[in-house]
Structure formats: C-alpha cells, structure tokens
C-alpha cells in the first residue's frame, strides 16, 4: 500500500510542516533579507548578467559582489517562480515548502535500500519533523541550508547505487545550495565512500561535481582575499551545552554567548530515543545485521559522535586551526548532520518482527510532538514592498533601511568605511568639472565630462574585478577611492566621453565555461 501511494502519502504527511507557509505575506525570521537578495538577483538576470554575481543596489547603491560569495541555487529556483508570476515573498516560501516533501522523498528512497516501506517512510518523516528543520524554516529562515537537506540523502543514495554522473550533479547542487553545509558534509561523505568501497568511483564524481560548481566556489575562495577578513559572529560564542540538546525548549530568538539562547537546539524526543536506543541495540546485537547494514549504522554513529564533539566547546582547537571553519560561525550547525543520520537508526529496529507497529508509532510521535514547532512566531503579513523598502536603498534610503547595518557584507579591502548616504552614479569634488550622466543599466553608465583641469572621477560602485573604465574609448586604470573604496580614476582636462561597465572577469569567465561544459557532459551521460 505504501509503495503504491508513496508520493501521495509523502505529500499528505508534509502538510503539517508547511501549513504556515500558506499564510498571507512573510513572517518573522532572522534572514528575511533573502527577499531583498532575490530582488537583486531578478535585477541582474533581467540585465542578462549570468551567472549573477555583482548586484547593483546594496550599500546605498554602491552594489556588492553578492552572488560571488552567497550560495546561488536556492535563488535560481526562486527566480524561476518569480519570473512565471509569483511575488518575491511567495517565490521564497515555495522554495521552503518544496524542500519538505522532496527531502522526505529522497530520504525514503535512501532508506528503502535497507528497509521495508513502512520503516523507510517512518525514517523519512523523522528526517522532516526534526526540530532543527523547523528552526531552519520558521526561526532562522535560511533558504540555503533548507535546500541542502534535499541533497544529503540523495547523494548518499547515488553513492550506494553507483550512479556517478547523477552523483556529480547532486554534489554540485549541494555546493551551490549552501557552501558551508557542503563543506561540513563532504568529509563524512568521503568516509561513507571508503566504508562502502566505492571510493575511487565516487571520488571521480566528487571531482566532477567540484568542476561543475567551480564557477561559484573557486572565485569565492580566490576573491575572499580581496575582502576584509571578518565574520559577523564569533564561533566561541555559539557552543551549545549538552543539556540544550535534550531540553524541549522552543523560542524564536537568537543564539547568544553562554546558555542564554532564546532559540532552540533541541534534537527532539523521538530522534534522541531512536539514536540512543538504536546504538545500544546495535552494539549488543551487531551480528544480527548484514555487512552493508553494519557499515551504514557504524557510519551514522560516527557522524553523531563527531557532530556532538564539534558542537562542544572542547573542540575549540579544531575550530581555530582547520581552514575556513570559523566561517561556519555557529558550531550548532552540526545539528544538521545529526538530523540527517537519525532516521538511519531505524534500520536497527527493522530487524525485529515484534516491532512491526513501530514505524506507525514513530510517524505519529514525530509529527504529534514536533508539528507545533513548524509555525510562525507572528503573523506579519509583509509582502514584497516592505522588504524592498527595508533592504533596497534605491532610489533613496528609507527609514527602515537606515536601521540596518549590512554588517553581513564583508567590505572590499579598499573600503575604509561603509557608505553613509546615496550618491549620484558619478561624482567629483572638483567644482569646475561638469558631468552629464547617462545610466545604461543599474551597473553601467556613460559620462560626458568637461573640465578646465584634470580631476578625479568617482563612480558609486565598489572597485571590484569585472569593472572597467574607458576614456574616449581607451581603457584606463581604476583605483579604490577614499573612503568607500569606490571606483576612482583620473579624467584629463577638456571634453571627454567616459564609459564604466561591468563584465565577467577573464578568470571567472574561464570557470563559467568549465562549469557549463561539465554540467552539459554530466546531463548527457545521466540520460
């Protein structure tokens, strides 16, 4: 029965988790700025900038290389919905909503390799109804991390099934969904490959997946050197206590230093019992399981142990010394890995005939005990206009925008301070210079100049690879102007035609081509 109506059952079981996404407008979450970011992606895509990288309106119109550093795939998906007519808010909510049944389906398919339909469905429900999943949607509102949950079980399934080309595409999808989550998951994935004796085949897939997504991650790593080294949050302040994992507290606040957090790190009663009791039974009855089943369970136990350790303050040495780990910002992000492997422990119970009703108990309890976490903190009813007004300071900065600090944007090294007001597209301190500005699009412009002496022309975009300036058709060198790091260059005296344009840099263009060729190759081989 389950097998025949799997998709329908999954859709029905998903309803309690997504019901609050059907409210009018958006709701209160930490990362509501994603609506503004989607607005910016829409702007640059309509400018035919693909792949989107530098957006025009942030930082009082100085723009920002946002999608050089921010995971783009969730926004690509949301942009498709927006282009076919959905609002920005509804496009983002649809990405959140679809992540629930799709991730449930892929977890079901993964568990079906080892278990019957009922246990597999129970594990899929447990995967979706983990409190951390509710935290991601309705407290933090992190669109990238919730998209990554779709790819975790799919990647493991494709390793087991030895589907190298689909595996490569899925790895690329994970990297493009959330680079931090991918970095967290890949070491565990490598261990999974080794234990399943598919390391060499799967390593090829990992390499191809990295190539397919290299247009994003390689420039992101390379160009990080052009930015001030900074993270908004210090990982030292965000180690949860062991008590917080097992305390059924729920809140809509923030992670703060110490154990005074007003957000929850609760693992969920069902998940805790399944993992703890499952581990004990497995250690006592391990001879009852086939070799591939042992591998799957042992891997899951190791993932749990490492994740708990990495969330404990005693792991601080690793956080200080491993490359890029401080960019995780929140050690409790490893709850995602525990959420991933918790359903796998149902394999332990599936071997006992007397527990044939356990799947239905797990499904009931996972939903009944946790569905109330999957709700909004308050009905704000905010639509596109509110978020555009709050996060987009063009044509002028609103009172709401002035309350934001944009501290999440790491500034280019040539920038001493953040811009503090709106500027014309081109401006100069030389009062004798006359400027006639023709804006070609939100990034490019042509400026007619007339001055009795040479002068420094500032252009209100950050100096960043991809921008170029020409005077009377001849390319000139640009510098970082003071104090904002704006594009700055000298214009000779007299009348001149100045052009400033943004184009893909040669290095990025090279990796764009590499990624495109590899993606086409992988799709062709997968068909």
Span between N and C termini?
30 Å
Give the mean pLDDT: 92
- The gross shape turns out to be elongated
> What is the spatial order of strands in the main beta sheet?
2-3-9-5-6
Helix content: 40-55%
Structural class comes to alpha+beta
**Tell me about the biggest sheet?**
5 strands, antiparallel
**Helical run tally:** 22
Q: Give the tally of β-strands.
A: 9
Count the domains.
2
Oligomer: single chain
Q: How large is the share of residues in beta strands?
A: 5-15%
Mind telling me the C-alpha Rg?
A: 25 Å
Unreliable runs? none
Protein name: Membrane protein 6-pyruvoyl-tetrahydropterin synthase-related domain-containing protein
Keywords: Membrane, Transmembrane, Transmembrane helix
SSE topology sketch:
Elements: H1 6-18, H2 34-46, H3 66-69, H4 73-83, H5 88-111, H6 117-128, H7 131-140, H8 143-161, H9 164-177, H10 179-195, H11 199-212, H12 214-223, H13 242-246, H14 269-284, H15 291-310, H16 316-321, H17 335-341, H18 346-349, H19 358-370, H20 384-391, H21 399-402, E1 426-427, E2 434-439, E3 445-451, E4 455-462, E5 467-471, E6 474-476, E7 479-480, E8 486-491, E9 494-502, H22 506-526
Antiparallel strand pairs: 1-4, 2-3, 3-9, 4-8, 5-6, 5-9, 7-8
Q: Could you name the key traits of this structure?
A:
50% helix, Immunoglobulin-like, five-stranded antiparallel sheet, 2 domains, alpha+beta, 527 residues, four-stranded antiparallel sheet, 9% strand
Write structural notes for this entry:
The two termini are 30 Å apart. The longest helix is centred in the N-terminal third of the chain and has 24 residues, at 88-111. α15 (291-310) runs antiparallel to α17 (335-341). The model has no long low-confidence stretch (mean pLDDT 92). A five-stranded antiparallel sheet has the order 2-3-9-5-6, with no helix packed on it. Strands 1-4-8-7 form a four-stranded antiparallel sheet, with no helix packed on it. It has 22 helices and nine strands. It has 527 residues and is α+β, with helices and mostly antiparallel strands. The protein has helices at residues 6-18, 34-46, 66-69, 73-83, 88-111, 117-128, 131-140, 143-161, 164-177, 179-195, 199-212, 214-223, 242-246, 269-284, 291-310, 316-321, 335-341, 346-349, 358-370, 384-391, 399-402, 506-526, and strands at 426-427, 434-439, 445-451, 455-462, 467-471, 474-476, 479-480, 486-491, 494-502.
